[in-house]
Task: inverse folding
């Protein structure tokens, strides 16, 4: 036995090792693949890691590799040191600088990420290539005999002899990669062999060979006739350059290096560097094999590198100067040398990974697959390549926008102070450019974007399999064969699947972490600038550049500084920032040029040449002036200044604003946007003037940030005591205010003096303390004092509230500061023309109209001013800082309530700790005396709210993008996220193409445009009850007087036994809990009613936003139509509509629906029932509180009462059909989640039970389940199960409803039990001691009952869960796109702890949705099914909203409950059903599967680590296996009148 | 089948070990540990969470099935080594046979210690076994020792559950237990009425200890019946933490202060983890945090409630204030004590310190447990205290 086992074991071991070996192979290939992929990612990673990660597998002997790397890094350190020296010297060679300026760009991208370390691999190559250089040089010379052609593009460049050298080198390089370097090629047999098979094998081949051919032709020999115009052009430049190179070489040398020979060598070396990039190119295009020679070279060239390096250093000794814009680049001969070096570097960063890749034969294989996987990656390299090429070869004009763009980066002004590594890289870049020219042939063919795209596509489809093949041929063909087969299978499957899928996503951003750091930097800088602390802002940015945060910087952050300098007219400073940008490897964007132009515009003395130079550089960056004006974000008069500058050069320029807005092209809504002849968008019942008036009211409220309203609590007469307390408080407050003001000033002074200190104890919040006036901070603090409840409040809460208030005030100020408000007023007053009843009918949607208007009023600031929100941590820090001030400095007399005695000063606030379960949290508690004073002063007669808590008094701003909409001034996110630190949604929305969001935005706008008013009679009744004794039954919170008394425990009294004491203790705990519950309920009701009361005579609007799944919510938190029965009852449509023939019937049916009775009756039955109880209805309406109180027994009593009153009014009106009704009538989805599941699975049984099928009577799934459970119970009771007997007669629809409803959303047994327990508790005569057992029993029965009823939906749910689990296991977050185009990402991650250190207390903030952390698998998988279904129901709601809008209906929704006027219910129902059918006619699950496959499986090859690969394959299988559907005919839904009822 | 076999083996072994003192070293624990093929439920097969709630809901029938008969329901350590049992017996005191003090043995499991104690002449031994699995054997044993051993189905560490409500065995109220056993309430200063010996549940060591120390201060639960003395095996790290001295700013916390205030803590014996049989998956490899306290042993610790605890002003009615004060003071161990005192009782900090003879700049983490008690007593006597918010906050 055991022997056998041992044998088996060893066998398995063998197998294991075999597998491992295979895996290793795969892994290597994989690495090469990744290298290219990583160009993008690199930016965010430390280059060193990358280097290690990607490179090390290539060197089997790590020790050796390490050593080498170490040496190189040492070398580079030396270099760096030198450069720094240079920088400090600060000698600026202007011309020089300019040169760099031009060249750097190409390198820039790569560079960003890669500071020093990345360069290391290059160094190696440098060394390796030396030997070969000589050979090449000779060849070059031969070539150079040909006459040079002139390059228009490159301007001034080639004038210098030195420069020419470079060009030469360039050509060489290009030659090498293509076919120019025969030696290399010959070196490895593979390389030569490879290309032909490829050609034959793949469809690419057609594309690829010509390219190669052209390249080779021009570089190598003139003999082959130019096949294509491209090749022709390309061929000529290299020669020319060579020629010059020779001629000039002498000069160049003389200037920088004395020995011409050396120079030549250097150049050669560089040339080779250049080649790398080109080779990278080659890779992209599928030339892969060529790279093989590189590996060899790597080794060979080591020795020489050092020499070269030294030379490089010499070159670098020249101090780079600031360059003005690109002008006179290459004029200096000396410069040319440098440029060369730059080019090399550029090559490295830009395509740094490819070179590495090239080192090993695998590399060839790698890039292509990648390319196929992610279209992005493919796109990128060509661009770079073209960039280098064109820069290198000046002669060919930039053929394509691609090339243009690429060229632009060179313009970036290189900073003199750069690190050596960067410099060297720059110089290399130039070289690469030069070489690029040789590669030209290729480049040209590639330059054409169209062609490129084609090639890429081909490649991607072909799947880089060819590349893989090559790779294999290079390594061990046999072993790889197996792997390959697997991969091919998978790929075939994948390509098949992805063929149909839509746009490929970016590989999800590692940029998240960057983003977070960036956000805090941005907000800091913005705040500084806002405060006018320019000097400090400047220094801050500089320090960022010195710190390791440097890699996280982006262009935006630099633009802020540029803006400031532009205001000051400091063009030289702007130039400096450009240099910095360059240094950091960033590309200037529209904002940067805007600032530059603005500055020129402000500066009347600025010469037109400067402007035109700037414009031309802009063009090189592929930015047009129109782009600039449409993309840029302008504050104040910036836009006008930019225009002014432009006009100086092009006096007749007119911004082209007519650019039409792209329309949404999603299949679901395409018709909605294109065919709108029949659309009748509703108008509001107000005149334009009226609306404008309302706008200014709303504006003044938001301007004040807070609003104080009267409380509904009965105004008690002011007693003597109250007056006294108020007086004392007022006196104290002035005192405290004075103290706080003084302390705040002192502390600010202290912070100011230490603003640059590195001491961690000094919080970096000085700028945030300056955005408002000192007294405003103090006011906010004093206000927070009054808000503090007597029992205290958690520190985090108080602090973040303080911080938030300051932030809100700041944003409003900021908007005023930017002169944004005036413009907002203008645009809005025009906008009202769309909505008002007295204007012409428009056929555009509010959003479209707004956009048009904005374009019309283009001058002045941009409305969607993008102020960076303060990160949560910052708000918190600020809040704690202020809180600390208060705790430490606010004191009062301990005997303040007994005047005459002079007590000691005691602090009024205490910082202590309390325990929430096992967590210890900081707590802020007012001194009991203070609490007592507050209580006795009864100041609650007025309430102060933030302005955004109130509904709006005018129609909200339409959402035009994810950054603009809703309130006039208060910042509102389109997607509200309650998790700290979640920014992934914002990023996703930003990335999402705007037109795809149109449907979502429009539907949200539509919901927000519904006008409301308060149902006054009902409000009066409710307030009267509220001020009387409340009523738990009617859900009106009773006043604190009704709360149970907390018994006083007398532990000491020996008269009581221990049992009694224990009992007391329990009672006391219960009473305390009850009191605090009642208090919060009471306050909640107080807020709601007070707001309602305040709005009593007004018309108002609820701006809407959504959650991350697209479910919409009104923004005002307390009083809105989403609330409880009470608040819903209080709201009616402001606009009334005549009931028409069927309106009254609908009102009656609505009333019956609200009672919760007759769920199983037909509509007719309900109507009859309503008619039969008409007396009760009228009685309820007339004597709500004293009559028969029929309404009180309804499920939703208050809404029922409202409906009773409406019906009574209708019945008493002369003509019921003409009665103007304001009451919303609801139509409720019957178990909406289940409906979506049933429709997804086309599950006949389920469809029937949730009313997807036409039926005479509504099916009620809850009753069904209840019935089933009752059967189970009866059976069990017979068998003598005790609890089943107890439950007899208690099982009702109501008991099981919530559990059934939530089960589709994934409620667990545990949660289900709690729900049922709650229901059972509510049943008065149910024996309380059995509740636990009964609920436990019931939840089991409910679950098994459902199991029988919904088989199909279970499969779908399982599939979703499985997919999410596997996705999450691979380390990704689950992401999808709804059929309406809304991208959704699940924000569940493992917790990350952030420490906030402060004097008062060190806080730990748990970030549970930080996208940089690993996903929380359990949450991801459990939440996916419900979230997905919610995203579907939100899509359904939005579709319905859009179409109702076009039909002229008033429509609002509470998730799956749709509201409209009684007369339009029928239309709404029709729309609702049609849209449901339309939605589910889309292949939703298939689309989801494709999307997920595309998103999570495309990287499969590059990610092929042994065990990971298995996981991916499994994922792929699961994702591809969409659950089968049943044969339910979806069209039947259209006939089902109980679908929503 | 094998379970039954195992039972037979175990019974046989038990009788053997009870009579051989120290002759058989640590072979037994392993053997005794119930490792039948059916395995300790829930340990070898950790409850696998169904990945779909619906799946969970629909596929797996009603609730968690009751544990199959024949396996222990809990995983825990046992004293299996007779030598160790002997040692524990000795530590429990020489007066085992005088009958004044009852001995509670918590979760005896296979009953090795029980047998040893009986052999040593214990007159009143109560075996509180929480796991039904072991009850039959213990009952058997009970029968053989006419009245010296009582077996109760009860988990000592789950006495008086916090949520209240109805209790089902093995959960129980202390009242019921003591009434059933006929033990009456006693004054605090009386002799020790009951000695409890057992192993602290591994999973919730700290929570269990905290619960015990709280009920001690409140004189609730078992402590109504006098000063119950505990002989507990606890993990070494927990013991070390509990006995941390002032000045160790990291480990010195409110918990330690309370324990040291309430109990006279004495280490009796250290035994490596390996000596304990049991079904706990972690039995052999206790978690060892990096750079943390050593945790290679289980320590037998005697926790003897201090007789003088309530004699100088402390009563169950002002205990909440004391607890509150200690916790507030020790949240930040590097804060000045005087500041904390000033907060709790305005402006009396320096006065209190001088009365205690302490330095003005003493930190909260440097104050001994006894000193905290005296500080509190002083503070409470001062006239200012009644107005201070501490008194009001706690009341």
Result:
């Amino acid at each position: 036995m055991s022997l056998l086992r041992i044998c088996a074991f060893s066998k398995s071991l063998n197998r294991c090792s075999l597998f491992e070996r295979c895996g290793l192979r795969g892994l290597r290939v994989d690495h090469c693949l990744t290298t290219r992929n990583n160009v993008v990612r690199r930016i965010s990673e430390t280059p060193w890691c990358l280097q290690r990660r990607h490179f090390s597998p290539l060197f089997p002997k790590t020790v050796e590799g390490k050593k080498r790397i170490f040496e190189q890094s040492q070398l580079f350190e030396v270099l760096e040191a030198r450069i720094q020296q240079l920088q400090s010297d600060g000698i600026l060679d202007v011309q020089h600088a300019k040169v760099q300026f031009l060249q750097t760009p190409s390198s820039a991208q790569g560079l960003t990420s890669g500071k020093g370390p990345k360069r290391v691999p290059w160094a190696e190559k440098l060394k390796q290539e030396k030997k070969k250089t000589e050979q090449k040089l000779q060849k070059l010379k031969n070539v150079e005999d040909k006459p040079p052609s002139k390059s228009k593009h490159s301007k001034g460049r080639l004038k210098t002899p030195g420069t020419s050298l470079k060009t030469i080198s360039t050509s060489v390089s290009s030659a090498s990669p293509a076919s120019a370097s025969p030696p290399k090629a010959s070196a490895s047999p593979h390389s030569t062999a490879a290309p032909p098979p490829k050609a034959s094998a793949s469809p690419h081949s057609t594309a690829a060979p010509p390219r190669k051919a052209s390249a080779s032709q021009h570089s190598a020999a003139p003999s082959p006739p130019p096949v294509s115009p491209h090749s022709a052009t390309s061929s000529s430049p290299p020669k020319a350059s060579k020629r010059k190179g020779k001629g000039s070489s002498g000069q160049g040398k003389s200037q920088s290096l004395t020995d011409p020979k050396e120079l030549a060598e250097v150049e050669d070396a560089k040339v080779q560097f250049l080649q790398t990039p080109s080779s990278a190119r080659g890779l992209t295009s599928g030339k892969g094999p060529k790279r093989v020679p590189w590996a060899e070279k790597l080794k060979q060239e080591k020795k020489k590198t050092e020499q070269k390096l030294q030379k490089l250093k010499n070159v670098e000794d020249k101090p780079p100067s600031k360059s003005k814009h690109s002008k006179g680049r290459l004029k200096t001969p000396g410069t040319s040398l440098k440029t060369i070096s730059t080019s090399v570097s550029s090559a490295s960063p830009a395509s740094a990974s490819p070179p590495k890749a090239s080192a090993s034969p695998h590399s060839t294989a790698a890039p292509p697959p990648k390319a196929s996987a992610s279209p992005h990656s493919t796109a990128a390299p060509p661009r770079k390549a073209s960039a280098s090429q064109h820069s290198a070869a000046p002669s060919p004009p930039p053929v394509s926008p691609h090339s243009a763009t690429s060229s632009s980066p060179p313009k970036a002004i290189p900073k003199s102070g750069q690190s050596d590594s960067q410099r060297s890289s720059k110089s290399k870049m130039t070289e690469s450019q030069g070489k690029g020219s040789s590669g030209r042939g290729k480049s040209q063919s590639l330059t054409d974007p169209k062609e490129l795209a084609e090639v890429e596509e081909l490649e991607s489809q072909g799947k880089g399999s060819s590349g893989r093949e090559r790779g294999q041929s290079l390594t061990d063909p046999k072993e790889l064969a197996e792997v390959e087969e697997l991969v091919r299978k998978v790929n075939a499957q994948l390509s098949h699947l992805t063929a149909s899928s839509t746009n490929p996503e970016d590989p999800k951003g590692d940029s998240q972490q960057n983003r977070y750091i960036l956000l805090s930097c941005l907000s800091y800088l913005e705040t500084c600038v806002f405060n006018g602390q320019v000097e400090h802002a400047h220094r801050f940015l500089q320090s960022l550049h010195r710190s390791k945060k440097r890699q996280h910087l982006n262009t935006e952050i630099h633009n802020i500084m540029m803006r400031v300098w532009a205001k000051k007219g400091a063009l030289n400073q702007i130039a400096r920032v450009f240099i910095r940008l360059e240094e950091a490897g960033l590309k200037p964007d529209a904002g940067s040029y805007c600032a530059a132009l603005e500055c020129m515009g402000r500066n009347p003395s600025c010469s037109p040449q400067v402007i035109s130079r700037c414009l031309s550089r802009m063009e090189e960056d592929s930015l047009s002036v129109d782009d600039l004006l449409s993309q840029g974000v302008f504050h104040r008069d910036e836009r006008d200044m930019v225009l002014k500058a432009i006009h100086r050069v092009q006096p007749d320029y007119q911004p082209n604003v007519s650019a039409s807005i792209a329309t949404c092209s999603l299949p679901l809504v395409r018709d909605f946007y294109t065919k709108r002849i029949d659309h009748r968008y509703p108008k509001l019942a107000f005149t334009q003037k009226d609306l404008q008036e309302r706008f200014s009211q709303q504006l003044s409220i938001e301007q004040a940030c807070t609003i104080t309203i009267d409380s509904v609590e009965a105004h008690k007469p002011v007693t003597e005591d109250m007056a006294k307390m108020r007086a004392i408080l007022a006196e104290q407050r002035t005192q405290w205010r004075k103290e706080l003001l003084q302390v705040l000033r002192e502390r600010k002074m202290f912070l100011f003096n230490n603003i640059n200190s590195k001491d961690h104890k000094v919080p970096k919040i000085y700028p945030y303390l300056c955005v408002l006036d000192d007294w405003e901070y103090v006011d906010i603090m004093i206000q927070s004092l009054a808000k503090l409840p007597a029992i205290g409040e958690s520190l985090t809460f108080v602090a973040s509230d303080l911080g938030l208030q300051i932030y809100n005030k700041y944003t409003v100020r900021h908007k005023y500061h930017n002169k944004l408000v005036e413009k907002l007023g203008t645009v809005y007053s025009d906008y009202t023309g769309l909505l008002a009843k007295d204007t012409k009918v428009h056929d555009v949607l509010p959003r479209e109209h707004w956009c048009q208007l904005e374009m019309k009023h283009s001058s002045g600031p941009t409305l969607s001013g993008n102020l960076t929100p303060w990160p949560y941590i910052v708000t918190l820090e600020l809040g704690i800082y202020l809180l600390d001030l208060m705790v430490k400095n606010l004191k009062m007399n301990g005997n303040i309530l007994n005047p005459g005695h002079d007590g000691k000063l005691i602090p009024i606030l205490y910082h202590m700790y309390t325990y929430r379960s096992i967590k210890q949290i900081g707590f802020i508690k007012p001194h009991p005396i203070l609490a007592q004073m507050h209580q006795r002063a009864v100041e609650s007669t007025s309430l102060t709210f933030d302005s955004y808590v109130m509904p709006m008094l005018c129609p909200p701003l339409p959402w035009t993008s994810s950054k603009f909409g809703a309130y006039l001034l208060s910042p509102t996110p389109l997607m509200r996220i309650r998790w700290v630190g979640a920014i992934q949604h914002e990023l996703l929305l930003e990335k999402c193409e705007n037109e795809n969001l149109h449907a979502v935005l429009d539907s949200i706008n539509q919901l927000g445009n519904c006008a409301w008013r308060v149902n006054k009679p009902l409000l009066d009744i409710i307030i009267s009850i509220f001020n009387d004794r409340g009523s738990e039954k009617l859900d009106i919170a009773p006043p604190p007087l009704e709360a149970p008394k907390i018994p006083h425990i007398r532990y000491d009294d020996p008269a009581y036994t221990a049992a009694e004491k224990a009992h007391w203790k329990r009672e006391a705990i219960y009473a305390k809990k009850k009191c605090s519950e009642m208090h919060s309920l009471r306050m909640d009701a107080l807020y709601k009613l007070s707001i309602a009361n305040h709005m009593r005579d007004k018309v108002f609007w609820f701006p809407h936003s959504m959650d991350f799944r697209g479910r919409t919510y009104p923004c005002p938190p307390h009083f809105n139509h989403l609330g409880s029965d009470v608040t819903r009852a209080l709201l009616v449509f402001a606009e009334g509509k005549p009931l028409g023939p069927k309106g009254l019937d609908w009102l009656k049916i609505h009333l019956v629906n609200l009672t919760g009775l007759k769920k199983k009756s037909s509509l007719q039955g309900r109507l009859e029932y309503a008619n039969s109880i008409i007396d009760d209805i009228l009685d309820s309406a007339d004597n709500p509180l004293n009559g028969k109180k029929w309404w009180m027994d309804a499920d939703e009593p208050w809404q029922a009462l409202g409906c009773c009153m409406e019906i009574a009014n209708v019945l008493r009106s002369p003509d019921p059909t003409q009665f103007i009704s304001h009451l919303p009538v609801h139509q409720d989805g019957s178990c909406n989640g289940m409906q979506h599941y049933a429709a997804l699975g086309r599950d006949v049984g389920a469809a029937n039970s949730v009313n997807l099928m036409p039926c005479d009577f509504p099916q009620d799934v809850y009753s069904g389940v209840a019935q089933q459970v009752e059967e189970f119970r009866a059976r069990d009771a017979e068998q003598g199960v005790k609890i089943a007997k107890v439950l007899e007669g208690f099982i009702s629809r109501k008991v099981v409803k919530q559990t059934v409803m939530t089960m589709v959303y994934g409620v667990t047994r545990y949660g289900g039990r709690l729900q049922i327990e709650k229901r059972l508790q509510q049943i008065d005569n149910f024996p309380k001691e059995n509740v636990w057992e009964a609920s436990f029993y019931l939840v089991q029965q409910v679950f098994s009952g459902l199991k029988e009823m919904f088989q199909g939906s279970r499969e779908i749910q399982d599939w979703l869960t499985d997919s999410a689990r596997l996705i999450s296991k691979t380390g990704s977050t689950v992401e999808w796109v709804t059929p309406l185009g809304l991208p959704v990402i699940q924000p569940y991650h493992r917790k990350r702890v952030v420490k906030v250190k402060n004097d008062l207390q060190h806080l730990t903030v748990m970030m549970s949705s930080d996208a940089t952390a690993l996903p929380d698998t359990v949450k991801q998988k459990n939440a996916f099914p419900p979230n997905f279904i919610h995203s579907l129901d939100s899509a359904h709601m939005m579709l319905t909203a859009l179409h109702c809008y076009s039909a002229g209906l008033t429509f609002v929704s509470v998730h799956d409950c749709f509201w409209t006027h009684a007369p339009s219910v029928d239309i709404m129902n029709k729309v609702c059903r049609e849209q449901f059918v339309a939605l589910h006619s889309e292949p939703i699950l298939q689309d989801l599967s494709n999307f997920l496959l595309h998103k999570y499986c495309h990287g499969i090859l590059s990610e092929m680590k042994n065990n990971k690969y298995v996981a991916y394959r499994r994922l792929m299988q699961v994702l591809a296996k969409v659950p089968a559907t049943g044969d339910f005919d979806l069209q039947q839904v259209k006939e089902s009148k109980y679908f929503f009822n | 089948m094998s379970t039954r076999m195992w039972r037979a083996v175990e019974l046989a072994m038990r009788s053997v070990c009870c009579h051989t003192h120290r002759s058989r070293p640590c072979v037994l624990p392993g053997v005794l540990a119930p490792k039948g093929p059916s395995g300790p439920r829930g340990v070898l097969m950790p409850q696998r969470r169904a990945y779909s709630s619906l799946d969970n809901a629909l596929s797996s029938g009603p609730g968690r099935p009751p544990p199959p008969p024949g396996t222990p329901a809990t995983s825990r350590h046992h004293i299996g080594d007779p030598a160790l049992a002997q040692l524990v017996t000795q530590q429990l005191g020489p007066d085992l046979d005088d009958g004044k003090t009852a001995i509670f043995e918590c979760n005896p499991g296979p009953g090795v210690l029980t047998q040893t104690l009986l052999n040593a002449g214990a007159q009143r031994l109560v075996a509180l076994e929480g796991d039904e699995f072991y009850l039959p054997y213990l009952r058997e044993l009970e029968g053989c020792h006419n009245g010296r051993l009582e077996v109760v189905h009860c988990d000592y560490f789950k006495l008086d559950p916090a949520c209240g409500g109805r209790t089902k065995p093995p959960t129980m109220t202390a009242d019921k237990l003591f009434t059933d056993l006929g033990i009456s309430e006693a004054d605090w200063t009386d002799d020790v009425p009951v000695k409890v010996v057992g192993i602290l549940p591994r999973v919730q060591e700290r929570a269990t200890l905290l619960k015990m120390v709280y009920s001690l201060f409140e004189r609730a639960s078992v402590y109504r019946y006098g000063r119950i003395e505990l002989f507990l095996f606890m993990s070494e790290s927990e013991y070390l933490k509990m006995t941390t001295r002032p000045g160790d700013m990291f480990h010195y916390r409110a918990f330690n202060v309370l324990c040291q205030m309430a109990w006279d803590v004495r280490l009796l014996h250290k035994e490596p983890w390996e000596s304990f049989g049991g079904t706990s998956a972690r039995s052999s490899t206790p978690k060892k945090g990096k750079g943390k306290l050593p945790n290679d042993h289980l320590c037998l610790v005697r926790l003897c409630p201090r007789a003088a605890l309530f004699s100088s002003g402390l009563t169950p009615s002002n205990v909440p204030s004391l607890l509150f004060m200690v916790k507030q003071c020790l949240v930040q161990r590097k804060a000045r004590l005087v500041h904390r005192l000033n907060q709790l009782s305005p402006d009396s900090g320096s006065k209190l310190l001088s009365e205690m003879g302490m330095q003005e700049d003493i930190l909260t983490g440097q104050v001994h447990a006894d000193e905290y008690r005296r500080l509190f007593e002083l503070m409470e006597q001062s006239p200012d205290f009644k107005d201070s918010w501490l008194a009001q906050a706690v009341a």
Remarks:
- The mean pLDDT of chain A is 70.
